[in-house]
# Entry
Amino acid sequence: MKNNLSVITNKKRIVVIEDDSETRLILGKFLRSEGYEVIEAKDGFIGVQKVLHTLPDLIISDIQMPELSGIETYETLNQIPATMNIPFIFLTAKCDINEIMAGLQLGVDDYIVKPFEFNDLKKRIEIRIEKNERNKSINQTQLDLIFENPNYVNLLVDDSKIIRYNSIFSKITQYSEDELNKMYISFFLLLNDFVTITKNIQKIKEQEILSFKMEANLIIKSKALEPVIIYAHPIFMKKELIWISMHPKESFSFNNELTNYHNLSKREITVLKLICTGHNNKEIGEELNISVRTVDKHREALLHKTNCKNTAELLVLTFKEKIIKFG
# Structure
């Protein structure tokens, strides 16, 4: 249960969406010869389905396709949290300058003009995948720091099966690691709470909601009940999992001396608390009823006041100096 949250795969996976069978065949053959796993789709509809099913490392798509164009395919995948950060490269004809501009303005990573040189294609793919891997590595560091936060219970669940937990969960529930490895989340919740969580998790998976927050009682080994506030949101790795974070029902208390030392405002402390509990900028904005741009400004202020270079350093400082702790 102490394993890193990242998922190791042997081959990088690429989905090729191209309605021209000859081009699709040539692309697939070349990419496989370069060691990639290739999934082919003959149109945008099938492409979206295969991307959702396989969660590839990169997508290559033609722009001009019947029914669902490349731009419409990109827009569809960009609305889905599991696929919105996958590098996306357009295949286009030289005359499609307007569509190239439209795609780049939407946020497409790159485009390749047909007919293309294989060496150019190879280089562009390698650059995009490498850049995405670096971003994943940075995000992974932040993810692990948040997950191992000793102040909160953090669980990673697949349906009701606990995939990973942090050390504070074992300490609070009083179960050993061997015992916890055999347990489901239902063992730690009252029936009504478990039913509510299960329904909300299903709503997340069906994309009816992005996350949820609720009050519940955590059942520990002695059968005592610990009132907690539960936050849950999806996390996308090899498959969609749910990150559940539990906090004491009473309000957080903060180390006032340290807060004054860094001169953090009350709102900055609130934003920092939400960052430490795994909330992204959009979720923080919704929680505090502020814009994502305002959240970005608070993040910048936090980094400046604490003299941290990035969010990972900020999290390390927060946990090490206990800027946020239990009351």
Notes: The chain has three domains: 13-136, 148-250, 251-327.
